[in-house]
Design goal:
Strand order of the largest sheet of chain A: 2-1-3-4-5
Shape of chain A: globular
Distance between the termini of chain A: 23 Å
Largest sheet of chain A: 5 strands, parallel
Radius of gyration of chain A: 18 Å
Helix content of chain A: 55-70%
CATH architecture of chain B: Alpha-Beta Barrel
Distance between the termini of chain B: 18 Å
Strand content of chain A: 5-15%
Shape of chain B: globular
Strand order of the largest sheet of chain B: 7-6-5-4-3-9-8
Mean pLDDT of chain B: 97
Number of strands of chain A: 5
Oligomer: heterodimer
CATH architecture of the largest domain in chain A: 3-Layer(aba) Sandwich
CATH class of chain B: Alpha Beta
Bound molecules: CO-5-methoxybenzimidazolylcobamide
Mean pLDDT of chain A: 94
Radius of gyration of chain B: 21 Å
Low-confidence stretches of chain A: none
Number of helices of chain A: 9
Structural class of chain A: alpha/beta
């Protein structure tokens, strides 16, 4: 990998968004993910190589460090921000078909439920692993999931629920979505959710943490 | 802040079961009047709440109250508080919540009349305003059903009124995840304080009109969330400690507006409130492991007046229904504290010391809850001319306490944690004490689409 891509990977791993960003202190004043991506493109690097060789491995490392409790969420969020700054320059190549996203992931906290911290972590990690994420927010009804799936054929759906009284809302939404899209893959999670519940409501996969969801999606995309 | 002097300024006087301003309830509890009582919190198992299930919902709450009170009676309890924290549907359609209060209150009355068991209901409607984003804190239509529930629910038997209000949460949600302490100050000490002034005036009005008790408001969505995230190792414990300390300045506003306690259980800011204002408090620790884990299992009870468990689902365990089992756990803890109190100051102080020492140096969040440190920090929390200055002073004192414990070798924290200490200090010191200056400083760095200043009177 070229020096430039190595530097870009480092910028993403340590959350250096752009030159002006004060964080991390050890990279102060240096180019960040935004400038480095632009330079790489100007020097003729393939957009897909930038994504596959620099950005995704950097986010993989971040995910790994997070799983091993070596960094906290803010470091992960900054890395995701740096990745976002790089992706901004790659966007046109997704549109032209030069690079392909691993797929689209539609995520929301189910109707009646406002807990969103876990959901946000899941979306961030999935985005970092190369998926295009559509975050529908909280209190999301079946209709919104269905409408978004229609607009994004082939997408995978993720749902989060934290209340015992919204687990049934999750069950209803899974059923509604299944009615229209019998083969769609649905991943669920949240503190009260279990494997048994996943089976019971005919979702495809339950993960107790974001890492499990990322792994499952990786296998799906393979 | 109204308070310029601590009501309790000696750590030895900050003790479980004893509050300078005890609260008497209609059925004879004297909270903070010399003994600790259990406060049971419970919730539904997996089910939805709608027309078709409402009978079953009501049956669950009747079963919970009946089972818990019978167990309390069997264990010769001196009194119990049942906390009814409503779920969305019960506040949106207040009649659902009101009916549940009635059902449980009839059971309380039966146990009181028949067996002399003193039991009361704490009614905690959920803050519906968080369903709207950006939140309409002052003009939301959702305030109507919330206050209908406060009003009619209190008349139906919800004698203690509380809430976990959410003013400022639209800013704190992301500030928490970014460990942005300035953002947390803005969320809690600017927006939160202003919203507390607004909502607690109204709650106190209802309480006074109906002859009920305005309890208190915990910073659940802020400080408890921080603790849960730190326990999952998502954010540093030292950061969660700062959030907890500054949450005192937000939660004390309920008392300034007329709340008299007991402060709510998931507000571990309670000990500070007790020292500053003298009101009785409720706390949860090891007994709340059914709802979330925590690093303060024992120390949380050191100066509490009600001992609680957060929510437990009404599901069957081998011993019986879970709320009944939790009632028993709470009762045994409370019995121990009460026997210590009866034996006199020496026994009570010994038990308190053991509860404190078993946790104190295992986590900075426990460290700041030792009664000695509560008094030290509380003195600083009232030192200042503005809420912001109060919060700054308290937070900086807590940082000093953490650094002293590290320097003495009594507490150990990994480098990942200690690296945050100088950053937190610098950030906190940079906050201007004047509210308008602080707002001016923060507005350019915050996503202003998330909140509406005029909804906070700004
Ligand atoms: C798609 O694939 C996947 C894969 C993995 C997935 C996934 C999807 N989704 C999640 N995961 C997984 O990955 C994440 C990272 O590891 C994890 O996500 P989690 O979300 O589990 O974990 C987060 C990172 C950290 N955890 C959390 O953020 C939740 C912690 C607890 C303490 C909690 C919090 C913080 C809050 N709450 Co709420 N809250 C509780 C919670 C206790 C608990 N045991 O969970 C719980 C869930 N709440 C409860 C209650 C009662 C309520 N809450 C309410 C409000 C709030 C706050 C606003 C104060 C705050 C939420 C802040 C926010 N922005 O989300 C109210 C309801 C609002 C609503 N309609 O949703 C209210 C009704 C309280 C009230 N009366 O106002 C209880 C549930 C009771 C029940 N019947 O189920 C509760 C157990 C606490 C309690 N009181 O005992 C995994 O589950």
């Amino acid at each position: 990998m070229s020096d430039l891509l190595l530097k870009l990977a480092e910028a993403v791993e340590f959350g250096k968004v752009d030159k002006n960003a004060p964080y991390p202190p050890q990279l102060k004043g240096q180019d960040g993910a935004s400038e480095l991506t632009q330079q790489a493109l100007e020097e003729g690097a393939l957009p897909s190589a930038i994504l596959q060789d620099a950005l995704i491995p950097a986010m993989d490392k971040v995910g790994q460090k997070f799983s091993e409790n070596k960094i906290f969420v803010p470091q992960m969020l900054l890395a995701a921000k740096a990745m976002g700054a790089a992706m901004f320059h790659l966007k046109p190549f997704f549109q032209s078909g030069d690079i392909k996203s691993k797929g689209t992931f539609i995520m929301g906290t189910v109707k009646g439920d406002l807990h969103d911290i876990g959901k946000n972590l899941v979306t961030m990690m999935i985005e970092g692993s190369g998926w295009t994420v559509i975050d529908l927010g909280v209190d999301v009804p079946s209709t919104k999931f269905i409408e978004t799936i229609k607009a994004n054929p082939g997408a995978v759906v993720g749902m989060s629920a934290l209340l015992t009284t919204t687990m049934t809302s999750m069950q209803d939404i899974v059923a509604d979505v299944r009615k229209e899209f019998p083969d769609i893959k649905i991943i669920i999670g949240g503190a009260p959710i279990t494997h048994d519940f996943c089976k019971q409501i005919h979702a495809d996969f339950y993960s107790p943490d974001p890492q499990g969801a990322v792994k499952y999606l990786k296998e799906l995309a393979a | 802040m109204k308070y310029k002097k601590l009501v309790i300024d000696n750590p030895q006087d900050l003790l479980f079961g004893l509050a300078p301003k005890p609260v008497k309830t209609p059925r004879g509890l004297e909270i903070g009047g010399g003994q600790v009582y259990s406060e049971l919190n419970f919730t539904l198992p997996t089910m939805s709440i709608n027309e078709n299930t409402i009978k079953e919902v009501n049956r669950h709450y009747a079963e919970i109250a009946e089972g818990a009170l019978q167990r309390a009676l069997d264990l010769e309890s001196k009194g119990v508080v049942l906390e009814f924290e409503t779920l969305l549907e019960m506040t949106k359609t207040p009649q659902i919540g009101i009916d549940i209060v009635k059902i449980m209150n009839d059971i309380c009355e039966k146990y009181y009349q028949k067996h002399g068991l003193a039991c009361e209901i704490r009614l905690t409607p959920n803050d519906l305003r968080e369903f709207e984003r950006p939140a309409l804190q002052r003009t939301s239509k959702l305030l109507e059903p919330m206050f209908e529930l406060f009003d009619k629910g209190s008349l139906a038997g919800g004698d203690l009124l509380s809430i976990e209000s959410t003013g400022g949460k639209e800013v704190s949600d992301s500030a928490l995840m970014m460990c942005d302490i300035k953002g947390m100050f803005f969320a809690m000490i600017v927006l939160g304080v202003r919203d507390m002034q607004f909502i607690w005036k109204k709650i106190v009005e209802v309480a006074e009109k109906n002859g009920k008790i305005a309890g208190g408001d915990s910073a659940c969505g802020f400080a408890n969330t921080a603790m849960v995230l730190a326990e999952k190792k998502f954010i540093p414990r030292v950061f969660a400690t700062m959030v907890r300390v500054i949450s005192v300045v937000r939660s004390i506003v309920a008392v300034e507006e007329g709340a008299i306690g007991p402060e709510k259980d998931c507000g571990y800011e309670g000990p500070f409130l007790k020292a500053i204002t003298g009101i009785p408090i409720s706390m949860e620790g090891k007994t709340a492991a059914c709802a979330h884990l925590s690093p303060i299992g024992n120390i949380a009870s050191a100066c509490t007046d009600l001992w609680s468990n957060e929510s437990v689902q009404n599901i069957k365990l081998l011993s019986g229904m879970a709320p009944t089992a939790y009632m028993e756990q709470l009762e045994y803890d409370v019995r121990l504290m009460n026997v210590a109190l009866r034996e006199g100051k020496a026994s009570a102080s010994l038990l308190k010391r053991l509860l404190e020492q078993s946790d104190i140096y295992t986590d900075p969040q426990a460290l700041v809850l030792s009664t000695e440190n509560v008094i030290r920090i509380s003195k600083k929390l009232i030192q200042g001319d503005t809420y912001i200055e109060n919060a700054k002073n308290g937070a900086l004192e807590a940082l000093d306490i953490i650094e002293e414990a590290l320097a003495s070798g009594q507490m150990k924290l990994p480098e990942m944690e200690t690296a945050y200490l100088p950053l937190l200090r610098a950030d906190i010191e940079s906050i201007p004490a004047n509210e308008s200056e602080f707002v001016e400083m923060m507005l350019p760095v915050l996503d202003q689409s998330h909140f509406i200043l005029s909804e906070y009177g700004l």
